[in-house]
Structures are given as C-alpha cells and as structure tokens.
Queue: 4 jobs
Job 1
Amino acid sequence: MTGPEAYLRLQQAATHAGAASSDYDLNPSTVLPAGRKLRPASVLVAVQDAAGGAQVILTKRSSRLQHHPGQIAFAGGKQDAGDADAVAAALREAREEIGLTPDKVEVLGTLPSHETVTGFAVTPVLGFVRDRFDAKPEAGEVDEVFTVPLAHVIDPARFVIQSRRWAGQQRRYFTVPYGPYYIWGATARILRGLADRMVP
C-alpha cells in the first residue's frame, strides 16, 4: 500500500464510529469487578511513508522489564499529570521511547479506547510520519524498533486466535505474526480494530 493511499484510508478509519475494545473480547465468560478504575494511557499507531510502501512502527520491549518483557508494542504508556491529553501522552512517549519527535508526526485522530488486563484504558492515536527519522531505542526500555507493512496488519486474514493459561484461566487473544515477530495481546487487538475500519 502506498503512502498516499495509506494516509487517506487512515483518515477515514479515524472517523469511523465503533465500540471500545478490550483484552476480554474473546473471553465473554470473564466477570470484571464492578467499579474497577482504569488508568489512562495511550499509544502511537505510527505509520511511516516508506519507499517499499506504508509501514507501521513497532517496538520490542526490553527483556529486562518487569512487565511485558520482550513483547511487541506500540510506543506509548500511561498518561502523566503533565500531559494535556491522550494525544500529548502518545507523542511524548514516542519521543522518549523511539526518538520520534512530534514535529514529524501528523496526528490523524484516535481510535476507541482499549482496556487491558493490566488495568489501563488505552487510547490508540493514529499518526502519519512523512519524513524519515533515525530511531533511538530508549535504553533499558526498548530493545528494538522495527517496521511491519501496513498492508500485513490490516488484512483480517492474517490474524489468528490463540490461547494460553493466564491467572488460572484459559485466555484467548488475537495474534498477527510477521517474520520473527510474534505480535499478540493488546497490540494485535488494536491492529485488528484498525483492520476492521480499513476494509475497502
């Protein structure tokens, strides 16, 4: 998919109405506690215009982290008190984690919130990167910054539902593998939501 085509389709995806998603979507028998409080967070779903076609920028979290070590993720994190909103938080985290400065990102909009099993309400922020940037993985947080073709992760046929034991129960989740990268969990669920909004 070319950069200009991706740009237009991402713009359209940002305007599509849709329900919020969660890590529990494929596990309808899960009973969530009443009155639970979710912490606000956001991620930058950054799409880069590249010579070989539009690419999604992803990270591999450090294997030394206490939470989600080695997992594939978007740049992002919890919203801090100094962040004006979810968009500001996503842009700040992208600058800190991968060296992508806000001036290189055109924010196209947001997707509905995604609830994680770790208690966050994550706002996915769609951003388009026209200029090349030199990725700078944050030491101790990010082991690798890499890209995946946008066409790959918005093709519903590429997604597979798998399961594993978690917290004493069998949990089902989306995966969308690419080469050596096992993309799963919240990252795959957010991409699956994007794929639904970008079906031609």
Note: The CA atoms of residues 47 and 128 lie 5 Å apart.
Job 2
Amino acid sequence: MFEMINIFDFFGNYIYRTMTIGTFMIGLVSGSLGSIIYVRKQSLMSDVVGHSAIFGVMAGFIIASTMFGIDGRSMIVLVIGSLVAGGLAMVLANFISHHSPVRIDAAMAIVLAFFFGGGMSLFSYILNSTIPNRGGLSEYLFGNASTMTWLDIQTIYGFGIIIVIVMVALWKEIKLFSFDVAYCESQGFPMKVLNPLVSAIVVLAIVVGLKAAGLVLMVAFAIIPPAAARQWTNRLSTMMVVSGVIGAFGSVLGSYLSVSIGNIPTGPMIVITLSGIFFFSLLFAPGRSVVMRQVVRRRKRKAILDEITHHVNASQGGHI
C-alpha cells in the first residue's frame, strides 16, 4: 500500500514541480506530433528515432566536451545530437526502402541496430575515457525526470514553441503530406523542403523528452497517445489535440503516481499510465471501441432477427 501525497505538497516541492512541468510539455508535444507518424503508418519509425538518438547523444557529448570544452550533458547539446542522429536514421531507412528491394520494416530494423550499436560503443568508450563530466549519461538511456533543472525546462519549452509555430504556419501542407504525399507533390508543394521539415519536427518532438523518459521509452510518448486518441475521433486536427491532451495528462498523472508510490522511475510510470488510458479508450471510446462495436453488432443482429421473425409470422398468417 502507498499513501497519496497531498497535491499542494506535491506542487510545493521544487523537484516535483519542475519534473511535472517538464513532463507536461513533453507529453503534449510528443503526443501531438506522434499523430503524424501514426496516420502515415510509420509507428515503428519513432522506435528507430528513439534508439538511434543514443548515437547522437554520445557523439554530441564527445564533440562538445573535447572540441568545444563545454559540458556535454547540456540539454541543448544532447537534443541537437539526438535530432541529427534521429533525422539521419529516418532518411537512411527511407532511402534503403525506396532504392532497394528491402522493405521499410526491415530497413528500419537495420538502421536501428546500426545506430544503437554505434551509440552503445561510444557510450562504452566514454565510460572508459578521461572525458570530464561523463557521470549521469546512463540517465538518458532510461530517463530520470527528477534530475531536470529549470534550464532543461526552458530548453524543452523553447523547442516546443518552435514546433507549434511550424505546425500552425504549415498546417495545410503538413496535413496533406501526412495523408497523401503524391497528391501533395502534384499540387506544387515544395517536397524538398516539406519532407525534411516534417521529419525534423517529428524527430524533435520525440527526442525532446529524452531526459525524462529515456531513449528507450520515448517511443511510448509518441505512439500511445495518438493510438488512444484515434479511438475518439476521425479528424486529424482533433486527433492531434486529443493526443496532446492525453500525453500531457498521462505525463502529469504518471509523475504524481511515481512520487506517491515511491522508488518507481518517472518514465516507466508515465508509460504505464498512458497505456492504461489507451486500453480504456480501446474498450470504451464511442463508435470505435471494442465494447461499442459489440453493442452495435448485437443491436444489428437483434434487428435482423426481429425482421426475419416478422416476415415469417406475416408469411404464415397470409398462408392461413
């Protein structure tokens, strides 16, 4: 058994408050932008980005620490490194699938293994080196939201604002691109700009939460909220809003539960909370849920049986 912490005491604590504010924005941004990956049927791409980002984290740390003499654990440095590595992984996976007989799922698996293996090799090199400030890098593998600082929060919100501005400015183009790339190109939209731009903001939305959830679990932040939101709506705009709300709410609730239960990392607890919301949506959302489909089927079956019974009775009455 565990005792729930008073909500005022929870938000009155600086560490808990900072953790909650950060995970709120991460869930909001990752959940919303994950809808683009979901409707494009590239859900596994978020897994590729998340696992490939470890290469960017380690490479960014080495470059920042050895070449520029700055703290390689800076949130900005690690997000930029993750963005570059995740973007390269997406481009490489699509390139392999488009220019070879290898299908996209196999291409993503190959790219994921390559970048993840390279990242773990760099991680081992860093641990056995004399590079300063290398402690705490393992937190980016599995996440540790309680270590977020106010500078990290500012970085997360800064990237989030950039993503929102791009989405609002190019909403029509991004919406069309998400559903039909060929038609979008036929309408004269600049695909050489739009394609990498959409990829960049999606990758950024995934890797922005690496310190809170870790590289391994960020896939859950990007895929579970849109999968749950899809059960409630058929419109992309509504789906992105609902997905963002689910991501933000699940992140805040998961943060609160992780503290209340105690000795449970925030990232995994948030994933469990988001999964609970998904299963609830899968079972009870109106129109598309498992329960509602069963109810509709039973009603239709009953209506058909009643109609057949009515015709049979009418036929027998007429014969008599």
Note: The two ends are 72 Å apart (CA to CA).
Job 3
Amino acid sequence: MAVFRMKIAGAVAAVASLFDSTPHYLGAYLTDEAPDFSVVVTEEDLRFEQAELDAEAAEEGFRRRAFTDPFLERAAIQRAFAEYLFRQDTLLVHGSAVAVDGKAYLFMAKSGTGKSTHTRFWREVFGDRAVMINDDKPFLALTDRGVVAYGSPWSGKHGLDTNISAPLAGICILERGSENKILPISAPEALEMLRKQSYCPMDAAARPRFEALTAQLAAVVPLWRMTCTKDPQAASLAHDTMG
C-alpha cells in the first residue's frame, strides 16, 4: 500500500494505491499540494480495467492481453483523473502531443498509423525547440483563454511525456499516404475522430456534456488532415502549415 498526492492539469488527487511501485511510475507528477479529490484503488478496480481493455481489444480487432496488476492500477488512476477533470471541462484524449517554441500540436489517428513516428520527426527536425508533452494520453483543458494541452504519466509504450502545459495551436488527423499533404478541415469533418479518441465518462448522463465539450473543442482549435510519408520533412510541412 502506498499513499501519495499527484497533480495533473491543475487537479490534485490524494491516492491510496495497492502497489509501492505506482508512485515511482508517477514520480514526475507527485506533489505536496492540498488534494481536490481522492482515489482509492481496489482489487475490483483492477478486474474492471482488465475487462475494459479486453473489450477495447475486441472492438479494435486486437489480440487480448493479460496486463499486470500494477499496470491495471495505473489505468484505474488514469480513469479517476479523466472522470474528475471532465467536470472541469478537461478531456483525456488519445493522441501524440508535441510542443515547439511553447505551442502544442496534437496528432490523432487510427492505431498503428504512425502518430509516434510523426512526432519523433518533429523532435529530430526541431531539436531542443521540441518537447514531448505526451505520446499517448495528454489532457486538453478548455478555458476562456483557449485550449491548453497538459502532460500526463500515461504515455504509451515509449514512455514519452513531460510535466508541462502549452496552449494548443492545432489538432491534426493523420493518415498514411504516398506524399506529404496537409489541408484544413471543418469541425464537422473532425468531430467523429475527436469523439472516438476522447474519454467519455462512464455515466451515460454525461454524454450530452461530452458531445458539447468535443464540439466546443472542434470549434475553437484549428483542425487539419494530413497524409504523410515516413519522411522527416513531413514534420516541417506540418509545423509550417499549422503555424
């Protein structure tokens, strides 16, 4: 058992975890600040997360995987943050977010399309100017000053994340192609992908608010669709176009 506090996207949770390894994994996000909410992980939570991952694998056509209990615990904490932050107009999204010169850019795509490869090109092309916010599960806070992207410790198999925030300059839907090409798209064109790649709370009553929040996101952030090759020049084109 471990007891600690962690902070993501401005929210602080007091966490009681089953495994001592969990606070080490979440180390960059630990804090001594006063908590806004509490998370107590149980064995039942672990079983629930495995069942959810099984369902997700079946939906995507992937082979079922049996995850370790510490992994499932971290997934339960992620879900608790996603549920709490949703009530603060902050969405957990599936995508790769990179910052260049203090502005964030988010790339979404179907699994296996190459989001991580594309943002790796950004780091290669822009060097120290580029910082990975999160390679898998960043948070997006919708504020009266615009949308802000936040890092989180749930950063996929590559473990690329930084505990920073940056204003979101654009969202780009990636597709594989034979050439590098990027064009602006409308909010209706992006909404299906945005909703598919954003966390919707477990309570069915939250669905209208989820749809409204994702519609607001699509309305206030520049949106793009890009076909790209495995060529670092794709990063230069995307950055120059998205601004």
Note: The chain has a mean pLDDT of 95.
Job 4
Amino acid sequence: MFQYCLFDLDGTLTDPKEGITKSVQHALKHFGIEEPDLNKLRPFIGPPLKDSFMEFYHLSEEQALQAMQVYRERFKPIGIFENEIIEGIPEMLKGLKEKGCKLAVASSKPEVFVHQILQHFEIEQYFDVIVGSGLDGSRGTKEEVVEEALRQFHILELRDEERKAKCAMVGDRKFDIQGAKAYGLTGVGVRFGFAGEGELEAEGADYIAETVEELHEFLENDHLQME
C-alpha cells in the first residue's frame, strides 16, 4: 500500500458546494454582478479563489483580492459550515491509519479554515500533516501546498520514482493532478467531486476512482497499483 497519502479537501473529503458558491455569490454582488444560479459557480470549488475571480469574471488582480476579502466576510462565520462530509470518508481514513499509512491534507483553502473544517467533522485526528494556503496569499498554488506537505513528511529528497511508489495525491480537480505530477507522486482522481467531464483524464491522472470504496481499495492494495 502507499506509505503516504495526500488528500485535497473540497470535493474530495467534503462537499462544500453550498458554502463556497453562496460566498462567491456574495462577493460578486459587491461588484454589482448578480449570479442567481449557484451551479454556474461550481468551478470556484478547488482552485485558488483569486485566480477564479480573475478567470471567470474578469476581475483585475486588485479587484480579485478585494473579492476574496468580501467572500471571507460570509464564508468565515457561515459558509464554512454549509458543508457535508462525503459518505464513507471517515471510515476510509480510519482504515488507512490502522494500516500504518501517514495521511496529509493538501488544500488550496486557507489553512486556518482547513483545521476548522476537519475539527467540525471530527476527522482531524487522522492526519499527520495539514497544509493549506495562507490568508496573506502565501502558498497560493497547489504545487506549493504539495511541496510543503512533502517537506513536513521529510520525503522531498527521494527520487521521483521512489515518491511515486510511496506517495499518492488524491483530489477531484486537475490542479490536484498537476500538484502530483510536479513532484512525481501517483496522481489519483476522484469522480465524486467537481471535475468537469474528461478533466482528470486530460490531466493524466494515474488512476480515477468512481467511489470512496474504490478509492479506499486502491490506496490499500499493492496489486491495484500495478494494473
């Protein structure tokens, strides 16, 4: 089995759609942009917020930074808990820990919020390392988040082929697969998150799990890694 497993948070461990999309809606309204259809805001789930405001609504960098602050005005007291843990995740994490796997969260969400969410769902105890972005904009890319998690695990010095055999990065978006590939990890996509059709395949995921049960089986079993 893998000795180290890094997990994305949003769309991989929890379903944060309501809290994130309503907070984005709140931020856009500040700029006079009305977006009543929350489904149109699903692409905000996963990538760094600043990039999404700039890409999807063409805000300048300065405006995007301001939008992030307005977003957090709603997200911090309300949106953070408009969230649900994905069925089967606690059992999977418990099972992996019992088998001796070291677990990490590697999320683009601000680290302070990551801790709150993991505590809220009572799964923080399963993780040896928890890494998110900084509220000041530091660690603003998935690659930087993954690098910090690997540094805390003391496995950055391993050769890529060793890391690929020992460590998996699990996530629901292309950014997670990009982070895995940047450091030679096995990139595992999950279909139950928020990836667009064909997104994980196009990014070159090493494996794609349709369900939590399938993900758990893959991470625990050597023979599936070799198929």
Note: The mean pLDDT is 95.
